[in-house]
Amino acid sequence: MEYAKRGIRVNAVALGSIKTPMHSAETHAQLDTLHPIGHMGEIADVIDALLYLESANFVTGEILHVDGGQSAGH
After folding, report:
1. How many angstroms separate the CA atoms of 44 and 18, rounded?
2. What's the pTM?
Protein backbone atom coordinates (compact mmCIF):
# COMPACT_ATOMS: atom_id res chain seq x y z
CA MET A 1 0.00 0.00 0.00
CA GLU A 2 2.86 2.37 0.70
CA TYR A 3 4.05 2.17 -2.91
CA ALA A 4 0.64 2.87 -4.46
CA LYS A 5 0.98 6.55 -3.55
CA ARG A 6 4.13 6.60 -5.69
CA GLY A 7 2.29 5.13 -8.67
CA ILE A 8 3.85 1.71 -8.21
CA ARG A 9 1.47 -1.19 -8.73
CA VAL A 10 2.23 -4.69 -7.48
CA ASN A 11 0.40 -7.68 -8.91
CA ALA A 12 1.16 -11.38 -9.31
CA VAL A 13 0.31 -13.98 -11.91
CA ALA A 14 -0.37 -17.49 -10.58
CA LEU A 15 -0.02 -20.05 -13.34
CA GLY A 16 -1.46 -23.49 -13.81
CA SER A 17 0.28 -25.98 -16.08
CA ILE A 18 1.50 -24.19 -19.18
CA LYS A 19 2.77 -25.96 -22.30
CA THR A 20 6.49 -25.27 -22.17
CA PRO A 21 9.59 -27.45 -22.53
CA MET A 22 9.32 -28.00 -18.76
CA HIS A 23 6.54 -30.54 -19.43
CA SER A 24 7.26 -33.30 -21.93
CA ALA A 25 4.58 -33.94 -24.54
CA GLU A 26 3.92 -37.36 -22.97
CA THR A 27 2.58 -35.66 -19.82
CA HIS A 28 0.21 -33.24 -21.57
CA ALA A 29 -2.83 -35.54 -21.59
CA GLN A 30 -2.57 -36.13 -17.85
CA LEU A 31 -1.93 -32.45 -17.10
CA ASP A 32 -4.92 -31.46 -19.26
CA THR A 33 -7.20 -33.24 -16.76
CA LEU A 34 -6.06 -31.01 -13.88
CA HIS A 35 -7.78 -27.96 -15.37
CA PRO A 36 -11.57 -27.60 -15.36
CA ILE A 37 -11.32 -25.90 -18.75
CA GLY A 38 -9.99 -29.23 -20.06
CA HIS A 39 -6.53 -28.38 -21.32
CA MET A 40 -3.19 -26.90 -20.34
CA GLY A 41 -2.52 -23.26 -20.93
CA GLU A 42 -0.45 -21.86 -23.75
CA ILE A 43 2.30 -19.26 -23.49
CA ALA A 44 -0.06 -16.86 -25.29
CA ASP A 45 -2.47 -17.17 -22.33
CA VAL A 46 0.25 -15.94 -19.98
CA ILE A 47 1.15 -13.10 -22.33
CA ASP A 48 -2.52 -12.03 -22.50
CA ALA A 49 -2.68 -11.90 -18.69
CA LEU A 50 0.51 -9.85 -18.46
CA LEU A 51 -0.67 -7.42 -21.12
CA TYR A 52 -3.95 -7.02 -19.26
CA LEU A 53 -2.14 -6.16 -16.03
CA GLU A 54 0.16 -3.78 -17.87
CA SER A 55 -2.81 -1.86 -19.27
CA ALA A 56 -5.05 -2.01 -16.18
CA ASN A 57 -3.77 1.10 -14.45
CA PHE A 58 -6.29 0.92 -11.60
CA VAL A 59 -5.47 -2.70 -10.69
CA THR A 60 -3.00 -3.27 -7.86
CA GLY A 61 -2.52 -5.79 -5.10
CA GLU A 62 -4.08 -8.61 -7.11
CA ILE A 63 -3.19 -12.21 -7.83
CA LEU A 64 -4.37 -13.10 -11.32
CA HIS A 65 -4.89 -16.85 -11.66
CA VAL A 66 -4.11 -18.06 -15.17
CA ASP A 67 -4.84 -21.70 -14.53
CA GLY A 68 -7.89 -22.78 -16.51
CA GLY A 69 -10.04 -22.71 -13.39
CA GLN A 70 -7.78 -25.00 -11.37
CA SER A 71 -7.87 -22.69 -8.33
CA ALA A 72 -11.60 -21.92 -8.53
CA GLY A 73 -13.47 -22.83 -5.39
CA HIS A 74 -10.33 -23.26 -3.28
Report:
1. 10
2. 0.86
